[in-house]
From TrEMBL:
SUPFAM superfamilies recorded: GHMP Kinase, C-terminal domain (SSF55060), Ribosomal protein S5 domain 2-like (SSF54211)
Superkingdom field: Eukaryota
Example GO biological process: isopentenyl diphosphate biosynthetic process, mevalonate pathway
Full protein name: Diphosphomevalonate decarboxylase
EC category: lyase
Catalytic activity: (R)-5-diphosphomevalonate + ATP = isopentenyl diphosphate + ADP + phosphate + CO2
Pfam families the UniProt entry points to: MDD_C, MVD-like_N
All residue ranges annotated as the Mvd1 C-terminal domain in the record: 204-407
Role noted for this protein: Performs the first committed step in the biosynthesis of isoprene-containing compounds such as sterols and terpenoids.
Length: 424
């Protein structure tokens, strides 16, 4: 047993981004190890706008493993947390800090308990892949605390067992989750295709939609798709392997037209698989008018320009993720979005468009009167009245591709008290 009379405490804080898949992960071939039926590719989002911060601490005085999420204590008993804790502990190395009188031998790590505090800087229920950022951050922070020597690829295989798409949050920029072949899952890891500086023209605008809790969880939905959808198996075997190669090439060459075409087509096929599932999964159910409007708006605009300006992608929820080829296009996109989805009169413009607000300034929008003065997009025919959906979008987040996990060395950024190991 750890000597409880000792009162030292060792603390690490890390910050990890979330990610959005442009070639979707949908379907597991192993539910316990979380092994997918196809490769997927994602863009890591700038952690300045969307991220998880997690502090982990170890002390001989801790009585049991405990976790607080967004300030509330939660249970760590779930299989997914337990897998990550077990896998990291089993890879821990010696940690010594003579000044503090700390010495933990690798074989003793399972005698010590940890405290974990995690905070998402965006609403956890907003459907913005919080578990991806959260589990990636947990694994990354624990690995630093326990002096785990494994590289990011090997850590990604651990994060994957917490939440599949978490493995892609261990890198910045553009990331591929390789499905792997091994039954152990050791080769089902994330690899970085390009870092966040490789294609930094891209601007990402997320329309966050207020919605009821998802009717079908992703885990259940995926299982039902694997069991009943012939399209899922065709997609995994015949479609995605070719699409992955094309997407890698598009990213390498910064070829926006190909990137956009592949992103939109793959999002639409993912939703087709959901409809092909028995019983069908309607992720676009009560919000479909919004998605259809956004898809039509982007498709029409792209066609009128002769080449794609914006890509759209929808996950298993109502939020739209829109990727503009550059800042100029992002400005025009935001004008279109605010034209169709103006804020509710009670909403402050400042809290309606968050993240990189300079795009709002570039769009010449400083006050509600500027939103009201927006004209219909020129590609819309004059004789078609344009319907508006006030209050339909909760808020927009303007962001861009961003970096991978980092350790936050400043004590002020820790979520746990340095003396008690309890949330600050
Ligand atoms: N699920 C959602 N957010 C999370 C977080 N920050 N850590 C662990 N699990 C989560």
């Amino acid at each position: 047993m750890a000597d409880k009379s000792q009162n030292w405490i060792l603390i690490v804080t890390a910050q990890t981004p979330t990610n959005i898949a442009v070639i979707k992960y949908w379907g597991k071939r192993d539910e316990t190890l979380i092994l997918p039926v196809n490769d997927s590719i994602s863009v890591t989002l700038d952690p300045n706008h969307l991220c998880t911060t997690t502090t982990v601490a170890v002390s001989p005085s801790f009585e049991k493993d405990r976790m607080w999420l967004n300030g509330k204590e939660i249970s760590l008993s779930g299989d997914r947390f337990q897998s990550c804790l077990r896998e990291i502990r089993s890879r821990a190395s010696d940690v010594e800090d003579e000044e503090k009188g700390i010495c933990i031998r690798k074989q003793d790590w399972d005698k010590f308990h940890v405290h974990i505090a995690s905070y998402n800087n965006f609403p956890t229920a907003a459907g913005l892949a919080s578990s991806a950022a959260g589990l990636a951050c947990l694994v990354f922070a624990l690995a630093k605390l326990m002096n785990v020597k494994e590289d990011l690829g090997q850590l990604s295989a651990i994060a994957r067992q917490g939440s599949g798409s978490a493995c892609r949050s261990l890198y910045g920029g553009f990331v591929k989750w390789v499905m792997g072949n091994d039954a152990s899952g050791s080769d089902s890891i994330a690899v970085q295709l390009a870092n966040e500086t490789h294609w930094d023209d891209l601007v990402i605008i997320i329309a966050v939609v207020s919605s009821r809790q998802k009717e079908t969880s992703s885990t259940t939905g995926m299982r039902e798709s694997v069991e009943t959808s012939p399209l899922l198996h065709h997609r995994a075997k015949e479609v995605v392997p070719k699409r992955i190669l094309q997407m890698q090439e598009a990213i390498q060459n910064r070829d926006f037209p190909s990137f956009a075409r592949l992103t939109c087509t793959d999002s639409n096929q993912f939703h087709a698989v959901c409809l092909d599932t028995r019983p069908p999964i309607f992720y676009m159910n009560d919000t479909s008018h919004r998605q259809v409007l956004i898809i039509n708006c982007i498709e029409k605009w792209n066609r009128s320009e002769g080449t794609p300006q914006v890509a759209y992608t929808f996950d298993a929820g109502p939020n739209a993720v829109l990727i503009a080829r550059n800042r100029n296009v992002a400005t025009l996109l935001l004008q279109r979005l605010l034209f169709y989805f103006p804020p509710h009169p009670d909403t402050e413009l400042n809290s309606y468009v968050i993240g990189d607000k300079s795009i709002l300034q570039d769009a010449g929008i400083e006050a509600m009167k500027d939103v009201e003065a927006l004209l219909p997009p020129p590609e819309i025919k004059d004789n078609v009245p344009s319907q508006k959906y006030k209050g339909d979008v909760s808020y927009f987040i303007c962001t861009k591709p961003g970096r991978g996990p980092v350790v936050l060395a400043d004590e002020s950024q820790s979520l746990l008290h340095p003396k008690t190991g309890l949330p600050k």
